[in-house]
Amino acid sequence: MVSTQTRSVSTRKAQVCRGPGCELGKSAYIMEALKHEVERLGIKDMVVDYVGCHGFCQQGPIIDISPEGIFYTHVTVDDVAEIASSHLKDNKPVERLFYRDPATGKAIPYYKDIPFYSRQKRIVLRNCGHINPERIEDYLAVGGYQALKKALTSMSPDEVIAEIKKSGLRGRGGAGFPTGLKWELCRKSPGNEKCMICNADEGDPGAFMDRSILEGDPHAVLEGIVIAGYAIGAHEGYIYVRAEYPLAVKRFKLAMEAALAKGYLGKNIFGTDFSFTMDLREGAGAFVCGEETALMASIEGKRGVSRAKPPFPAQSGLWGKPTTINNVKTCAFVPPIIANGADWFSEIGVEKSKGTAIFALTGKVANCGLVEVPMGTPLSEIIFEIGGGVPGGKKLKAVQTGGPSGGCIPVNHLETPVDYESLTALGSIMGSGGMVVMDEDDCMVDVARYFLSFTQDESCGKCVMCRLGTLQLYVMLQDITSGRASMDDLELISDLAGAVKAGSLCGLGQTAPNPVLTTLKYFRNEYEAHIKRHRCFAAVCKGLVIAPCRHTCPAGIDVPKYVRFIESGKFGEAAATIREKIPFPFVCGLVCVHPCESKCRRGQLDEPIAIRALKRIAAEKDDGLWKENNKIMPSTGKKAAVIGSGPAGLTVGYYLAKKGHSVTIFEALPEPGGMMRYGIPEYRLPRKVLSREIQEIANAGVEIKTETKVESLDMLQKEGYEAIFIAAGSHKGAKLGIPGEEDSKVLEGVDFLRDLNLGKAIDIGEKVGIIGGGNVAIDAARAALRLGAKNVSIIYRRSRSEMPASSEEIEEAESEGVQFLFLTAPSVITKVNGKVNLEFLRMALGKRDASGRPRPEPVKGSEYSVELDTVIAAIGQTSDIPPGFDLKLNRNGTIEVDPDTLETSRKGAFAGGDVVSGPASVIEAIATGRLAASSIDRYLGGTGDMEEILAPPETELKPREVEEGDKGRPHMGLKTVKERIGSFVQVEEGYTPEQAVEEAGRCLRCDLED
Amino acid sequence: METLNLSIDGKEVKAKQGSTVLAAALDNEIYIPSLCFHPHLSATGGCRLCVVEIEGYKDYVPSCTISATDSMVVRTSTPQLLQLRREALNPILSQHPCACLMCWRQKKCGPDDICLRNVAVTDRCVTCPRNYNCELQQVVCHVNKNDVKIEYSYRNLPIDDSNPFFARDLNRCILCGRCSRVCNEIRGIGAVNVYNWGGDSLNGPFGSKPIFDTNCISCGACVSSCPVGALYFKDSPKAETETKTTCTYCGVGCGLVLGTRENKVINVYPDKESEVNKGYLCVKGHFAIKEMVHHPDRLTVPLINCGGQFSPVNLDEALNIVASRLRNYRSDEVAVISSSKCTNEDNYVAQKFARVVLGTNNVDNCARL
A308–B84: do the CB atoms touch at under 8 Å? Predict the structure, then answer.
């Protein structure tokens, strides 16, 4: 090794991270290999050394080359030779090892440019990753022990306390008690002998701040402890480290030895009469020992259980002596505060919370690692700017702060500044600094259950509330996640959780119910869905979910079963399986939004199964096998009317007819199908497919009266219809609300698509602008291209990642030549020379709104205008319910229904589909249709049982051995852009039978696992 | 000693310096329910039933651990506290048999009655040895808990009956920790401790060994301290009359309560009011007296050995025989053995008699406890 004496300023350094994460990536071998290479190539003035954790463990192993500041990530032993020869020798940095921005994919060579670091303010972590933690000289070179010298030689203990009080430092262990006040209480407490303890029993799952500091900069912690000891008048100090942190134990022991040898510990430090001894105690792995009274009991050699306070440790602590206990981070803050002054520190942060906060950012976030930011930084900045957002295009659901006893903060509170008071107000805590980001694939009930399983396991068992209260909460949550609970249990859970919080002896029990209480407060709908409908939105609760695809499908189609039929080439059986739940297999095979695919287990390996495409081929190759078992019950003589022949209305009609009721569907437009016919363009859904499936419904005995608009429900009831189902959809476009939109060249998206599908001639000209970012906007844009428009742009006020349209559609529109204008909102429409002049405002993304998406805010003075032939506004739809229906409506104009029965405010009238939910998807409409049919059948005196068996039973039922493959989907044929433009020919060609069998073979059959 | 003046539930009370809030309340006849508190033992604040509101404290505090201070204002039964106590009983009753507690027939049924609600035998109060003498019953009655919100489930822990005098059924244990504290703090034995962690915590010998295989001295103090029926004496039938007396096993003079039926001692309890033993006994006093008293081999009259045959005589006769024979021996040919069952005073007189009257130093006593 190159000794420290030979270092000069011009020396270049290659610093290999040897934090625990990088160490697991064999960084010790990497360092040895690099040293060997440097020696072999004879590179002069090059020091290869190791440093503590950089806090960016996800990118490890990390090598940092200074003075250039090049930052290499994911280095392996095999990369070492290239780094040495190319970069160190020839000064050509190795680009493939640079950090890549998760959003843009751009390579960022320099440490200082990486947003993960550039947006942080590192005080405690300032040395982590920059000095060799096992060499005291490195710490001295960055000003180490100067604060101790200053405190001992030029300040009295009271002055030190005054300085800390003035700085506003609060305990970083979680409770946030003012550190200066804590020291003062201990100093003033009667007694000659006092103790200083540093709490390094960091037990929160996923949190590793204390560990990284102890491993990366142990001397700073030690210096802080000695200063604290001096301030409170203690001569003995302890640090209580978990035994699970062997590297931290080793490095802190080395630090103690080195400090003792240099005279920063022991007798007469810096020649003063202050003496201080230090001892390290290893914990035995009990989480509760992080609680101060339990920690002291453990140091004393007793069972680590907490005791009631008062007496507080400052009055009677370790061995009965007045004691101060500070967290590792608190101790590490002390030297910089003493060195730079209280004012420097109190300028950082917000009014009541000063300085920086350190978080271990983990979970569903692109950049995991240690983050140090000024107090008061909004959560959104930590997650999106530093953390890089949620990977895989998934939606953020909640952020959990404060470890297992913290709470879950939902997306509508993302602008909350992180400080003690704000987090407490939301029901969470700052805690020690864990921050777990959760996305749509996390079930909040399951999260609460997991944290409770941890806390009930780690309860010391002394007090009833914590020992049995958390156990009972856990048992009840387990009941919910396995579908055994009732709605009364929710009441019981919140009562018991409140009692555990109020009645527990120590901080563990007092905070343990936080995950339950916050999820119950912010995600009550998930609890209710689990209990009432046995639905887990994230499809993770094992007791409820057989296969995530089947569970996520709104209609509950047995996906794994029909995929297996396809795998063995039995397409008819597959189609029959689909038909057991929906009457539109082919339509769904073409246009379903396939929520099932987003939850497919195979997607975690490589790519989800192409479930929609498999459904399509099953429907294509359907040989009518399902008809063998299809039963239509004898007539009941009851009459039911359905208003609207969209997917919801047709589904209700079909299932009611099968139950023997006489059903009439009233449709205002010339042909049945609703949005399937008048919304979805033909290039996605050929009309003959639709007509064929509607014919099957008519064959079941449903009468469809087209061009009949119903204006009053009383009329229908007078005509003898005992039950009425309203599925009128949402066919009215929402207004832009800007001047000039009444112009004839300003169309509404749904109107445009309807007229197009009615066969009306529409002159849209050459330049078309579409306003909106949903699927209707995309459909309108692609249809406009096919009508001959040369220049089609979609104008959306947010950015691409916030677009509600499905990404496949966006990509296809893009490939067809649709242009996108993001962050642009229309302000005025005027008519100039027969053309539409659309004036825009540029937008900038600001703070996040209740949906968790950044709110677009107009940029002043950014107006510009474009001349267009036609403007199509597709910013949403509402329903148009005739006043004659006399129904109770929601505020947004949808019909108010009982969510369990779909019954409206009027007896005998039911409603479903878009008219209730607002614009949604075909599959959701079909699912509510089935629910409504069941409910109406019960109303008409039937059983309401819609279950039927159309497919034969399966023969082979073995789970598949998971192969470590990255075999994606087969490539599906698409019509070329040239073929598409100018005609409404179907774009997707579908799989060939061979491809389908191959694709079905990728299914992991997770439904068959135990 | 300085007295403290404090207000409890609006009542001005006096308390001794250094006493806890709970002690101050109990001394002034204000009942605060508790299960883990025992006046002889250190307070833990574990059962969460004695929580009170004290002005100036933001959280509820257990009254057993907090020292009373002058002009303290305490409230023991606000609606919130009553609710909290009822909630605290929920989890306790989820692990302690409670079917009889909430039943309207609880005062009518006996252990042998057929339960109309078909409750398992292990879930009943009436089959518990501590029925009507159970502190949990008192507490449930006091806080007016009349519903079971969380279903009780039998834990199915094995019953340890290795000790000949008492058994341990941890299915009834509420983990108040009194047994382990009495064993450690009063007895200094430490045969019983809390082991395991969290919801699995149990009171008992380390590693759940049978109690008889530990250093347990079978004093029964743990059984006496148990608030519920988790620890119980194996053979303790119901007595007709109870008589306070003093233990004759040794010279300490522990107070006893002898329970008798048909003029026979059928069980023995320590006298809690005795200043000598304050409610504790050793294994002999606790468990051997009833056997000793009615043992057929017990000497109740003096016996004279005449030609290899023992024949009963009255005490005067026996004394005369001994006195007449003693004259035939030199003083160092005589030895005196006295009994540890005699009082210290008797033993003193005996040795005085030996040394002064008989002139022998051959004195001994059977005390080998």
Answer: no
Reported as a pLDDT band with limits 50, 70 and 90, residue A10 is low
pLDDT category of residue A200 using cuts at 50, 70 and 90: very high
B62:A504 CB<8 A: no
CATH number at residue A584: 1.10.1060
CATH number of the domain enclosing B285: 2.20.25.90
Closest listed residue to residue A205, CA positions, set A363, A352, A74 = A363
Q: Do B345 and B308 fall into the same domain? A: yes
DSSP state letter for A904: -
- For A276-299, what is each residue's pLDDT tens digit? 999 999 998 889 998 999 999 999
Let me know whether A507 and A372 are in one domain.
yes
Residue A44: CATH number of its domain: 3.40.30.10
Structure tokens that stand for A56 in this block:
């960016």
Q: Has residue B180 been placed in a domain?
A: yes
Q: With an 8 Å Cβ cutoff, are B88 and A499 in contact? A: yes
B139: in domain: no
- At a CB cut-off of 8 Å and minimum separation 6, what does A930 contact? A555, A581, A582, A651, A655, A946
| Domains identified in chain B, total number | 4
B48: CATH: 3.10.20.740
Least Cα separation, residue A475 to chain B (angstroms): 10
Q: How confident is the model at residue A965 (pLDDT cuts 50, 70, 90)?
A: low
Q: Are A989 and A974 in contact (CB under 8 A)?
A: yes
Question: Which of B45, B46, B87 is closest, CB to CB, to A495?
Answer: B87
Compute the distance between CA of residue A311 and CA of residue A31 in angstroms, rounded to an integer: 51
CB contacts, 8 Å: B175 with chain A? 461, 464, 467
Does the distance separating the beta carbons of A463 and B47 come in below 8 Å? yes
Question: What residues make up the domain containing B194?
Answer: 166-233
Residue B195 belongs to domain with CATH number: 3.30.70.20
**pTM of structure:** 0.88
* CA angle centred on A106, ends A100 and A108, rounded to 5°: 60
Query: B59–A310: do the CB atoms touch at under 8 Å?
Result: no
Take residue B263 and report the two structure tokens written for it.
Answer: 């003029």
**Given pLDDT bands bounded at 50, 70 and 90, which one contains residue B237?**
confident
Using the Cβ of B61 and the Cβ atoms of chain A, whether some distance falls under 8 Å is answered with: yes
Distance from CA of A460 to the nearest CA of B (A): 5
Nearest to A468 among B43, B45, B91 (CB): B91
pLDDT digits (tens, 9 = 90+) for A749-778: 999 999 999 988 888 888 999 999 999 999
Answer yes or no: is A870 within a domain. Answer: yes
* Choice between B197 and A916, residue whose per-residue pLDDT is larger: A916
Encode burial over B283-322: b for 16+ CB neighbours within 10 A, e otherwise.
bebbbebbeeeeeeeeeeebeeeeeeeeeebeeeeeeeee
pLDDT in tens, B80-133: 999 889 888 888 998 898 888 888 887 788 888 888 888 888 888 888 888 888
Residues B281 and B323 reside in one and the same domain: no
Range of the domain at A103: 10-118
Name the residue in chain B with its Cα closest to that of A307: B44
